[in-house]
Amino acid sequence: MLCEVAGRGGALLVVISADQVFTAAELDLLGGAARADLAVFFVVTPGTTGWHGGVAPAATAPADGTGTPSAGGTPPVDPVGSAVRKQRAALLAVVPELAVAPWFPSRPGGVGALRRAVVAWAAGEGPRRLATAPPAGPHRTVPVVPGAHARDWADRLDRQVRAHAQRIRQHLAIELAHIHLRVVQEIVFGAGCAGLPRVLDREVHALSQLATVQCDQAVDRLVRDTGTLVLGRPPQDATHRRICAAVQTGLAGSRAVRSLERVLLVTSAGDIADVTGAGALAALDAYPGAPRTAVLPPVAVALAGGCFLHFWGPGSTDPGGARSWLQHVLRELDRELQREVSHRLDAVRRALGAVFAEAVDHGILLA
Q: Region annotation Disordered: residue ranges (predicted)?
């Protein structure tokens, strides 16, 4: 969830105390952030005993990002800089890709150096993101490869869609099994039945984002692979955007039959209701960010407010009943998500097939 939000319009700010150790889960998260090329800033705060052992200079962090102030002659003992160096070395031993990430100590005087670094990053990041989506110019003619009609592209598109759908469905089924284990642990060893809706809502929110990312990746792969067969070369950025825009137009027709803008809502009875429309998706987007440019709208799963009221009531202290409710909900979610993934990719198959069939018939990409 954190990486998805940062990727849409921000960066990661990681705060760690001087006597804290990065956990395996945190290192895995930071490794994922590095692979996603997200901007990461680190701040080290005093430990439980505060900054002891010397006088920390008032200088701010240098440009090398280590947070170690420069001083002439023999500097006094600097526990602040020492803590920053120690934490940074421990992280880079596992995630060396974050060597360029800046580190800042949290000093009594404030975090001015961090504020200036974030402002400087934002000033350059805005134009960079705008440059990745330039305005559409006049369309160049994109010819179809000779003999495209004989390249079996439609059958290969069908096979690819089935393969992508099966892979995503299997992955989501595995994640639902993991969710079951984590929520049961919360019931048995955590906050009990009262904590179930909070943890489950967070888990299905993350599951929604996972399903969204995997569907987006599958669509991009379908456009690229099928475009390579029909056009004779991988579609360049401008051509890729033209094809995706045409597919989105084609999907508008399928929404008249079954909306792709759909929220799966878990009710207090353990059933799955659906709410459709762009407003439903907007209500679920708790974090602001850049608007989506993907072909498909996001996959969305959430808990209705009645679930929280049900498990906060006086008669909801039965762990066995809570676990039974949870199993029923996850079975229903599995069934609905299987259908949703298949429906989405099948709709893309029809729209993408229509775009390329028209291109093959006319000899050029008409999108």
A: 58-80
DSSP symbol at 49? T
- Do strands 262-266 and 272-276 pair parallel, antiparallel, or not at all (unpaired)? antiparallel
Strand partners, 81: none
Q: Identify the sign of the CA torsion 64, 69, 74, 77.
A: negative
Q: Is the pLDDT of residue 75 over 60?
A: no
Distance from first CA to last CA of the chain, Å, rounded?
34
Note the pLDDT tens digit of each residue in 198-239. 999 999 999 999 999 999 999 999 999 999 999 999 998 889
Look at the alpha carbons of 227, 232, 237, 242 in this order and tell me if their dihedral is positive or negative. negative
297 DSSP assignment: P
In this structure, the dihedral spanned by the alpha carbons of residues 115, 119, 121 and 125, taken in order and rounded to 10 degrees, is: 150
DSSP element (H, E) containing 157: helix 153-189
Give the pLDDT confidence score for residue 293 in this predicted structure.
Answer: 83
The Cα 280–Cα 257 span in angstroms is 18
Segment holding 84, helix H or strand E: helix 79-92
Separation of alpha carbons 333 and 327, rounded Å: 10
| CA 303 to each of CA 6, 118, 274, 308: distance values in angstroms, whole numbers, following the listed order | 24, 35, 11, 8
Nearest to 84 by CA among 116, 112, 60, 119: 60
Place of tokens 């708790």: 286
Q: Pairing between strand 40-45 and 103-105?
A: parallel
Contacts of 84 (CB under 8 A, 6+ apart): 44, 66, 67, 68, 103, 104, 105
DSSP 37: T
